[in-house]
Specification:
The complex is a heterodimer. Chain A has strands at residues 4-7, 10-13, 19-25, 31-38, 42-51, 54-57, 64-70, 73-78, 87-94, 104-105, 109-113. Chain A is mostly beta strands. In chain A, strands 2, 4, 5, 6, 9, 10 and 11 form a seven-stranded mixed beta sheet that branches. A four-stranded antiparallel beta sheet of chain A has the order 1-3-8-7, with no helix packed on it. By secondary structure, chain B is mainly β. Chain B has no helices and eleven strands. Chain B has strands at residues 4-7, 10-14, 19-25, 30-38, 44-51, 56-59, 62-67, 72-77, 86-94, 102-104, 108-113. Classes of the chains: A mainly beta, B mainly beta. Chains A and B meet through strand 5, strand 9 and strand 10 of A and strand 4 and strand 5 of B.
């Protein structure tokens, strides 16, 4: 398995509080991704990173920010959590844009916003 | 906008049966298509990746086919086993993206009974 961990694995928080999720990799992959998974929607891309301090938005980026200060760490922050952000969050990593490259996924973080 | 649909949403079969999972996509301009497996409470694992120029890929008891012109892919599982029980997702990668932007289907939840 690709060396990718997420923390915390579970979190319950209240509306309006800030929340930070961490993704850590030991594979030295260039690309890192944050997805959310909701019933009926599949996985949707929130943000991605193509290098240290290089990030860009995905299709559902509103209410989220990210940072990548080191190759191995990619942080997802909910500045002020809302109930609509209750979801399972997955981090993924990938070596690049080669045609046979896949993405390797972390185990996920289940976030509940009350 | 690319949309990916998987039918059925859930499938229950007895052990030993051969089965087919379906994936359809609306934009035939894809770079590749992947099938992933997701076990409960865990991340996704890539099973098969088919390039847009290929018609099928095989791995053990799994065979994935791709018909770009009709916007369809199928995942064939031969001689199903209880260990195959999981959710199966397909994802398409769009053409000419600078990173691996994947569009996921909502998945088919498979239960194989002993």
């Amino acid at each position: 398995d690709a060396g990718i961990t997420q923390s915390p694995r579970h979190k319950v928080t209240e509306t309006g509080t800030p929340v930070t999720l961490r993704c850590h990799q030991t594979e030295n992959h260039r690309y890192m991704y944050w997805y959310r998974q909701d019933p009926g929607h599949g996985l949707r891309l929130i943000h991605y990173s193509y290098g240290v301090k290089d990030t860009d938005k995905g299709e559902v980026s509103d209410g989220y920010s990210v940072s990548r200060s080191k190759t191995e760490d990619f942080l997802l922050t909910l500045e002020s959590a809302t109930s609509s952000q209750t979801s399972v969050y997955f981090c993924a990593i990938g070596p690049g844009t080669g045609s046979t490259d896949t993405q390797y996924f972390g185990p996920g973080t289940r976030l509940t916003v009350l | 906008k690319q949309e990916v649909t998987q039918i059925p949403a859930a499938l229950s079969v007895p052990e030993g049966e051969n089965l087919v999972l379906n994936c359809s996509f609306t934009d035939s301009a894809i770079y590749n298509l992947q099938w992933f497996r997701q076990d409960p409470g865990k991340g996704l694992t890539s099973l098969l990746l088919i390039q847009s120029s290929q018609r099928e890929q095989t791995s053990g008891r799994l065979n994935a086919s791709l018909d770009k012109s009709s916007g369809r892919s199928t995942l064939y599982i031969a001689a199903s086993q209880p260990g195959d029980s999981a959710t199966y997702l397909c994802a398409v990668r769009r053409v000419n993206t600078g990173f691996q932007k994947l569009v996921f289907g909502t998945g088919t939840r498979l239960l194989v009974s002993p």
